[in-house]
Amino acid sequence: MKFFRILFGKTGLIFLAILIQVATYFAIGYGVEVLVIYIATTLEISPFPFTQLIITGINFIIALIVIVRLTVRDMTPEAKVGWITLLVFFPIAGALLYIFFSHHTLGRKKTLLYLDIHERGKKYTTSKDDCKDALGDRIGNSRYLYSSASAVPHRYSNAEFFPTGEQFYEALLTDLEKAEKYILMEYFIVERGQMWDRIEKILEEKVKKGVVVKFLYDDIGCLPHIERNFHKKLQAKGIDCLRFNKFTPIASAVHNNRDHRKITVVDGKVGYLGGANLSDEYINVTHPLGQWKDSALRIRGSAVQSLIMLFMSSFDAQDDTRLEDYEFYIPDYYEWFDTQGIVQPFGDSPRPLMKDHVGENCLLNMINRANKYVYISTPYLILNYALSNALINAVKRGVDVRIITPRIPDKKLVFWITRRNYKPLVKHGVKIYEYLPGFIHAKNYLCDDVEGMVGTINMDYRSLMHHFECGVWMYKTDCLKDIKTDFEKTFAVSELMTKDTIKQSIPKRVASAIGSMFSPML
């Protein structure tokens, strides 16, 4: 394995392994046809048209069985269309791909482990105060997050908004330096460089002083960026490090369930979450995609408890032999802030851990309740019918709907699909802006000056269906003014797209059309 890793590189090895397995599935389908021809020849029966009749019958039966299963299955209509299209053209191969790749839910053993962890931490995710008197006409979204994701609303907690990765990074370093008891960090991407080197140095120093440091990173998310034994190197330095959903070179839908969360908690007193990962491009030390635009929230007060439990649920689920004593991480008291705003951190997980797509429904609730405006920033815009229709209906109600996406893409096909989605939205009055300086990675949502969300949730199928995500829903917090100011500054350096500027070349339109058809399956 080491020889092949050196020969192909880490990323190349992954694609090689997946390619070999997918080719095997297709070979099985081809083998069925060869076997039928061989039997016909042995029996001295003319392979044609007898063989073709059998093969056609087999294809029809297999496709029919899988399509019937698809029809009754609890799956988004967009995903069903993609699978049915594949089955029509490639019945046997499509059926094999469906069996191995269509199930985006966790296995039974892992699901039971998560549910056990949730039950153990339940007393930390319940509250007698539903903040009903402070939530006004937006109480519905708060209640939804509590009932679907066990997300508790918090009064008297402080939320501070950072409009750039650079500002987030400097504040993060300051708080890490102050750690006295523990540090919890969970990230999708880690890459060696100036940003990580300074963080790692602080973590090493804190471990030497007796501070407990736990670090969790997504194995596939980090695969192109760090060495495979990265976790062992951190463990050797006293950092309790685990990999989320360890990658194995077997093509499977299980690998769709990635940990896209970005969380830091220091001593239970301060917590961070947002779009920024731990890599130099997020703080513009490097510029692979022009100016990188990101954001983050710094939370203090009792709302930090929700981030503690989100981290613990992810960390404990990676090794069921070493479940943590949660009491150690709960502080004796939380700082109290004289504010009337509500801060409600929440997590989103793939089915069956959560029966709903919590992030999507939270966004739908915000859009459907908007009266004046909806502002959105997202790196990707790959919408299902429900979200697209909600945005269009908001415009019809007189709501000013604006969406910011990147001008410089990180993935060309995804960018082409994103641009393809502009057309029906622009046609109905949604204003779409492209961020001219480079790549906007911030996932920010704001409605009517009173309701907002910042977190890791993109407006695409991967975030809304497959990933472990997190966000903070806020009502009338002071930082909503800062978020609005940041939106206004970003609009000023972005181009408003029109019917003429959204046009794409024929090859891009063809590629994006095909990609759109299968995007829910990815």
Description:
The strands form three sheets. The chain has an eight-stranded mixed β-sheet, with helices on both faces. It has a seven-stranded mixed β-sheet with strand order 1-8-6-5-2-3-4, sandwiched between helices. It has a two-stranded parallel sheet with strand order 7-13. It is built from 20 helices and 17 strands. It has three domains: 100 residues, no CATH class; 237 residues, 2-Layer Sandwich (Endonuclease, Chain A); 164 residues, 2-Layer Sandwich (Endonuclease, Chain A), CATH 3.30.870. The chain has 522 residues and is an alpha/beta fold. It starts with a helix and ends with a helix. β14 and β15 form a beta hairpin. Helix content is 46%, strand content 16%.
List keywords for this structure.
single chain; 522 residues; alpha/beta; Endonuclease, Chain A; eight-stranded mixed β-sheet; seven-stranded mixed β-sheet; 20 helices; 46% helix; globular; disordered N terminus
Could you write a compact summary of the structure shown?
Helices cover 46% and strands 16% of the residues.
